[in-house]
């Protein structure tokens, strides 16, 4: 669709600026098979951050948690210097490489939090990391760097606890109410 093509073009522009930064997943190209587009990216031997802490608990000690947290902070700091907001900081969008380096991935999330192109599960996962201001759904509120930092803070909690934020809840409305009322 035209929307998908625009999304891909937007990602290419962003990824050109991010190509050689050590805490950003490298993208080598784009291939098309039929109607489907696939990114060819740097290999993430250990998958995403949530897969890592679930499957490698014995290796995920305090030292490694701190190192990976610093990796993520460096990636976010770099994005800030090139004036790019990720919009979707969460464990599934942090990939872990062969040398256990944490790298930011998935730069296509420039959609509104509650856009109709996202399914219920995608919205649920994203809302777990959203700043309270964003969940207020005020018409004049603009996603900014403070929202990124809030998401990073929730991600740090997840790294420390090795648990999904609000894992006991599978209802967007319940999580939204909890976050908004804890300000």
Features of this protein?
single chain; two-stranded antiparallel sheet; Transferase(Phosphotransferase), domain 1; 183 residues
Report the count of strand segments: 4
Radius of gyration: 16 Å
Shape: globular
CATH class: Mainly Alpha
Task: Give me the strand/helix succession.
Answer: HEEHHEEHHHH
Kindly report the name of the CATH homologous superfamily: Transferase(Phosphotransferase) domain 1
Reported by name, the CATH topology is Transferase(Phosphotransferase), domain 1
The average pLDDT is 83
Per CATH, the architecture is Orthogonal Bundle
How much of the sequence lies in strands comes to 5-15%
> Level of helix content?
40-55%
The strand line-up of the biggest sheet is 1-2
Structural class: mainly alpha
Pfam families: PK_Tyr_Ser-Thr
Protein name: Kinase-like protein
Keywords: Kinase, Transferase
GO molecular function: ATP binding; protein kinase activity
Structural summary, described in words:
- The structure is a single chain.
- With 183 residues, this protein is mainly alpha-helical.
- It has one domain: Transferase(Phosphotransferase) domain 1 (Transferase(Phosphotransferase), domain 1).
- It is built from seven helices and four strands.
- A hairpin with a 2-residue loop joins strand 1 and strand 2.
- Helix 3 packs antiparallel against helix 6.
Task: Summarize the helices and strands and which ones pair or pack.
Layout: H1 2-18, E1 27-33, E2 36-41, H2 49-55, H3 62-81, E3 94-96, E4 102-104, H4 120-127, H5 132-135, H6 145-161, H7 172-181
Antiparallel strand pairs: 1-2, 3-4
């Amino acid at each position: 669709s035209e929307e998908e093509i625009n999304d891909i073009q937007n990602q290419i522009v962003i990824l050109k600026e991010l190509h050689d930064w050590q805490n950003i997943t490298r993208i080598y190209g784009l291939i098309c098979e039929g109607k489907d587009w696939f990114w060819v990216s740097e290999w993430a031997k250990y998958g995403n951050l949530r897969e890592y802490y679930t499957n490698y608990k014995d290796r995920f000690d305090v030292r490694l948690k701190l190192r990976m947290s610093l990796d993520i902070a460096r990636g976010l700091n770099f994005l800030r210097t090139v004036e790019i907001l990720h919009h979707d900081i969460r464990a599934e969008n942090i990939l872990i490489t062969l040398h256990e380096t944490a790298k930011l991935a998935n730069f296509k999330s420039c959609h509104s939090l509650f856009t109709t192109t996202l399914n219920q599960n995608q919205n649920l996962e994203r809302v777990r990391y959203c700043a309270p201001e964003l969940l207020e759904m005020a018409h004049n509120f603009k996603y900014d760097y403070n929202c990124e930092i809030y998401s990073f803070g929730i991600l740090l909690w997840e790294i420390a606890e090795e648990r999904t934020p609000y894992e006991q809840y599978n209802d967007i409305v319940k999580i939204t109410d909890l976050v908004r009322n804890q300000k």
